[in-house]
Design a protein that fits this description.
globular, single chain, 4-stranded mixed sheet
């Protein structure tokens, strides 16, 4: 199975409004609730691809109970979340149906106690015994040590499981030094890590900091990868309108599933770009539109770069 870790899980709430206007009241045309947080989104996409997947992290309070209830309805995802006393956060996405734009509100996460962190580490190490690969995703909730991802990367490497790390800031800086198999920053996260806003030099610089491979998200322009086998750009055939929330998580699922299947780097990037595009076309994060996925997958352009 593939193991995903979401230390700062969330209840994702999506509102759709005919038009979003500042300083105005709005009638919401539709509401959806989904189990969320980056790693849980990754888990749901992996399950949609047919991969056995286990999701761990923290869940607590009424929002956490609803996350677990909704996760139980996600076919193919095994719930291994660890209880915490404080309540799981909510994220609220407001989709403007007139423009297609999305406005996101993210609550702070729960306060994790030292005892809860220890309980998580015990669960994580037990789960590693059956993991073919690990995704470590998202922000750290209050109370979790800033070097947490470095600890989790080293434990996975000791168990022989390749790790994809998708986080930001100091957690990324410390985590990449533990030498994960891959990291997947976006442009802003990459610039914060390296100090450079030039995508290709910055991606290669990030790889020199410890990761075996770095795949940078270029938003609607696709992905840029620097690996031990070469460097590539992968671009979708066209920009898609829709909700971009979770598109990066779907790219992580594409990269990790392709790694487990033994695909080469260009094919990994094709899958990741196609899944990302298909998620923009889906109504909520953690889902992808199968028809768009198949359409885009056959048209992704992968180019070697020097």
């Amino acid at each position: 199975m593939i193991l995903t870790v979401t230390l700062n899980s969330a209840l994702d709430v999506t509102y759709r409004v005919p038009r979003l206007r500042p300083h105005a009241s709005h009638r919401v045309s539709a509401v959806t609730e989904r189990p969320g947080g980056k790693g849980i989104n990754v888990a749901r996409v992996l399950a949609g691809l047919g991969h056995p997947v286990t999701a761990t992290g923290f869940a607590g309070g009424p929002a956490g109970a609803l996350v677990r209830e909704l996760l139980a309805r996600s076919p193919g995802v095994v719930d291994a979340l660890v209880p915490c006393a404080d309540t799981t956060r909510r994220t609220v996405a407001v989709v403007d149906e007139a423009s297609g734009d999305t406005t996101q509100f993210n609550e702070p996460g729960p306060l994790i106690t030292p005892a809860e962190w220890s309980a998580f580490l015990e669960r994580y190490e037990a789960l590693l015994a059956g993991a073919r690969a690990v995704a470590l995703c998202g922000s750290l909730p209050p109370g979790v040590p800033v070097g947490a991802y470095a600890v989790l990367v080293r434990a996975a490497r000791a168990a022989g499981a390749p790790v994809l790390l998708d986080t930001s800031g100091e957690a990324l800086r410390r985590g990449v030094a533990a030498r994960p198999e891959m990291i997947k920053p976006n442009g802003a996260e990459l610039a914060e890590l390296t100090g450079s806003r030039e995508p290709l030099p910055a991606t290669r610089d990030a790889r020199r900091r410890g990761a075996h491979a770095v795949v940078t998200s270029l938003g609607p322009d696709g992905l840029l990868a620097a690996t031990g086998q070469g460097s590539w750009r992968a671009a979708p055939p066209r920009a898609l309108s829709g909700n971009p929330t979770g598109a990066g998580d779907s790219a992580v699922a594409g990269l990790l599933s392709a790694l487990v299947e033994g695909l080469d780097w260009p094919e990994r990037l094709v899958r990741a770009v196609a899944l990302s595009a298909a998620t923009v076309a889906a109504p909520t994060a953690g889902e992808f539109d199968p028809r768009t996925y198949e359409e885009v997958r056959g048209s992704v352009k992968v180019t070697a770069v020097q």
